[in-house]
Amino acid sequence: MRDCLGLSVGATNLVAIADHAPLVRRAVLTVSAQHGAVVGAPSLSAPGGLVFTDFVERVGDPVPLVAGDGSTHSADRLLAGTVEALTREASPAHRPDVSVLAVPAHWSAAALDAVRGAMPGVRVVPDSVAALTAIQAHPGLPARGVVALCDFGGSGTSLTLVDAAAGYTTIGQTVRYPDFSGDLIDQEVLRHVLSNLDAEPAGTAAVAALAQLRDECRAAKERLSDESSTTLAVPGTAIRLTRAELDTVVNQPLGGVIEALLDLLRRNGIHPAQLAALVTVGGGARIPLVTQRLSSAFRIPVTTVPQAQVIAAVGAALIGRRGADETATQVAVAPASLPVTGTGTGTVAASAMAWSVEDSAAEVAEFVPESVTDDSARPDFMFSEPPAAPAPARVAWYRRGGVVTYAAVFLAVVGTAGMVLSARADRLDAAATGSSMLAPQNVPAESPLAQNVPAPPTRTVVVRDPSWPGPGAGAQAPAAPRPAAAPRLVQSRQAPPAARAPQRAVPPPQAPRPRPAAPPPALLPAPPPALPPIPVPPLTFPPVTLPQLPIPTFNPPTPSPSPSPSPTPTPAPSPSPEPEPEPEPTQTPEPTVEPTPTPEPTPEPTPEPTAAPEPTPTSAAPSP
Questions:
Q1: How many angstroms separate the CA atoms of 354 and 359, rounded?
Q2: Domain annotation covers residue 11
Q3: Same domain? 260 vs 197
Q4: Residue-level pLDDT at 112
Q5: Strand 302-303 to 28-32 pairing
Q6: Whole-angstrom Cα distance, residue 177 to residue 152?
Q7: What's the pLDDT at 20?
Q8: Over the range 490-509, which residues count as b (16 or more CB within 10 Å of their CB) and which as e?
Q9: Choosing a second label site near 18 at 20 to 30 A (CA), which of 140, 245, 333, 554?
Q10: Residue 319 shares a structural domain with residue 218
Q11: What are the Low complexity biased-composition ranges (predicted)?
C-alpha cells in the first residue's frame, strides 16, 4: 500500500493527515536562521524570527508580502514552504509517496496555477471535492441528484453545488459569502463579553489582555457546540456565556447564508425541492443553530460529521490512496475517529469541537477496498424534465362560460322586452275596445244644390197717396218730397219665414218706377264630406323563435300581473263647427231688365186716431 499524505489549506488553519491522527496548525509561518520554517504560533515555535500571516488569501497575487526586516516574499512561495514544513512534521521518518493538497474551492484559476507551479510534486484538488469524497465514504451520499455543500470556514462561507450522477462535478462556480465566518463570530462574542465587563468594577483589568480574551471567546464558542452554557475565565472575574446568547449573535448573519444559497440555486435553474442532499463542513458546521436553520429552510436532513473541520484533509488522503484510475464508486473506508498526536510544538489540544482538534482515538485502520454499488447508499433519485402537460380538451362552444353568460343576458333582455311590449299591447287593445263601444256618428254629406239658399232680401216700398192729407195738412203745406234713397242689398242667412202678422190693406200704389233687378245670390261651396274615423288595429308582434341551446334553463323572475285598468267609456266627440269657406270674388253681373212683377196689394195702414182740433169759435156751422 502506498504511503499517502492528505493536506488542507485554509485561511485560519492548516491540517495534515498521514498514518496517524490529524495535525492541525494555525496558518502562521515563522522563518528563522536557527529553526528554519516552522508552522504554528510564533511565540512558541521560533521566537525572534520573521512571522508571516494572511499569506493564504494572497496566493496568486503578483504583489509580494513585505516582512518585518523589509524583505519581500511571494505568497505562493510562502505557501509552498508552509506545506513542506507541515509535511516534515506530519511524516518525520520518511517522505510520503503521494501528497494531495486540498485548497479553497473559491480560488481562481490563476491561484491554482500558481500553487501547482510552486509545488510541482503535489496534487492540488478543490477542498469541496475532497470533503464530498470523504462524506461519500461515510456516512454516504445519494448516487444521483444535486448536492449542496456549505463550508463554514474561519474567513467566510463557501457554497458549492455538485452533480452526484456525474462524479460530483461542480455545477457552476463556488460562491463565497464573507459575512458569516468563524472570525466574525469570535469578534461578536468578544464584543458581548466586553459589554458585560464594562458593567463590573473589576472588568477593566481584562482589557489589557485583549488577545488572550479573544482566544478564550473562541474556546467558549467551541464548547457551546456541546454544552448549554460555559464560563470564561478572565483576570479578576468570571463571565458566564450561554448557548442562547451565542444563537443571538449567529442568527442574523446565518440568514444571509440561506439567502445566498437560494440565490445560487435560482441562478443555476434548480428548485430547492430538487436538492438530494445538503452537506455542511468546516468549523461552524457543529453549531446546533446552523443545522436547525438549514433543515427548516430547505425541508431536508442536513448531513455532517463530528470532525467537520478536518474532513477536507481526510478526503485528500482518500483521493491519494485511491489513485487517479479508480472509479468514483470505489472508495476507501473512512476512519471512525482520528487521534491527535501529541508531538510537535504548537499542537492544539484534542477536543471533538468545532475549530478544535479531534478526539483521541485508535490508529487509522488499514485500507480495505470495498466495492460500493449504487443501491448501497440512499435510494436512487432520477431527475428528468417534467412531462408535457396534455393539451386541454376542446370545450364545446355552448359549454363555455362566456357563451352561457351572454346567452343568459340575451334571454333576460328578450324576456324583459317581450313583457314590456305585451303590457303595451294590452293597453292598446283595451283602448281600442273602449272606443269601439261608442258608434261613430257619421254626418251625411249634403249636396250643394240641395241646400236652402236664403231668399234675397225684399224691399217694401210704401207709396203715400198724394190725395191723403197727412196730419197737420190743414195747418201747413206738404213739403217737397225727398228723393228716395238707393236701395241697400244685404245678404245674410235667414231663418225660415215665420207667420206674418195680418196687415191692413194698402191702396194700390200708382205705377212705380221699375227697379233694377237684384244680383243673383252667390253659390256657396259645398262643405267637404265628413270622413268616418278609421279604426287602428292593435299591433301584434310575431313570436321570436330562439334556437334551443343545451344549457341550463334560465327562468327569469316572473313579475306578478298588475291588474288591468277597467276601460272607461270614451265621451262622444262634440261636432266641431266646420269652417265656412270664404266666398270667392265674382264679377258683378251687369243689370238685366226683368219683367216688372205684379205688385201685390199692400194693405193700407189703419190711420191712427188723432186728436180733434179744438173748435174755434166761429160763426159758421161745422161741416157734416
A1: 11
A2: yes
A3: yes
A4: 92
A5: unpaired
A6: 9
A7: 72
A8: eeeeeeeeeeeeeeeebeee
A9: 140
A10: no
A11: 474-504
Residue with C-alpha cell 458569516?
A: 180
Choose one of 304, 333, 362: the last residue of a domain. Answer: 304
257 with 296, same domain?
yes
**Sequence-ordered alpha helix ranges (H) in 235-287:** 243-267
Q: Are 111 and 238 in contact (CB under 8 A)?
A: no
DSSP state of 363: P
Cα Rg, the chain, nearest whole Å: 70
Contact status, residue 348 vs residue 163, Cβ threshold 8 Å: no
Distance in angstroms (rounded) separating the CA atoms of residues 452 and 305: 141
Domain presence at residue 599: no
> HSE of 188 in the Cβ direction (CA atoms, 13 Å)?
17
Q: Cβ atoms within 10 A of the Cβ of 30, count?
A: 25
Q: Are residues 105 and 214 in the same domain?
A: no
Q: What is the mean pLDDT of each run of 10 residues along the chain (624 residues)?
A: 86 87 89 82 64 90 88 91 92 88 94 92 94 92 94 95 91 94 91 73 53 85 90 80 92 94 95 94 93 94 92 93 54 35 32 37 44 48 66 66 80 89 78 52 48 53 50 44 46 47 52 57 58 64 61 56 56 55 53 52 53 47 41
Identify any residues that bridge with 65 across adjacent strands, giving them in sequence order.
73
What are the pLDDT digits (tens) for 49-66? 788 888 999 998 999 999
What total of structural domains would you count in the chain?
Answer: 2
Helices (H) and strands (E) in the chain, counts: 10, 17
DSSP string, 551-568: S----PPPPPPPPPPPPP
Of 323, 354, 388, the one marking the end of a domain is 323
Give yes or no: residues 112 and 188 share one domain.
no
Beta strands, E only, 27-168: 28-32, 36-39, 50-53, 65-66, 72-73, 98-103, 123-126, 146-152, 157-163
Going 124 to 127 to 129 to 134, the CA torsion angle's sign is: positive
Do residues 292 and 319 share a domain? no
Asked if 13 and 25 count as a contact pair (C-beta separation under 8 A), the reply is: yes
Q: Are strands 237-242 and 229-234 parallel, antiparallel or unpaired?
A: antiparallel
Q: What CATH number corresponds to the domain at position 44?
A: 3.30.420.40
Sign of CA dihedral 603, 609, 610, 615: positive
The single residue listed with the C-alpha cell 425541492 is: 273
pLDDT score of 182: 92
What SS3 class is residue 408? helix
Mark whether 105 and 8 lie in a shared domain.
Answer: yes
* Residues of the domain holding 50: 4-127+313-323
> 204 and 105, same structural domain?
no
CA distances from 264 to 51, 173, 175, 293, 474 (A): 38, 9, 8, 18, 161
Task: Please choose, from the candidates 307, 299, 259, 255, the residue with its C-alpha nearest in 3D space to the C-alpha of residue 280.
Answer: 307
In a domain, 261, yes or no: yes
The pLDDT score that the predictor gives to residue 585 is 52
Q: How far apart are CA 237 and CA 241, in angstroms?
A: 13
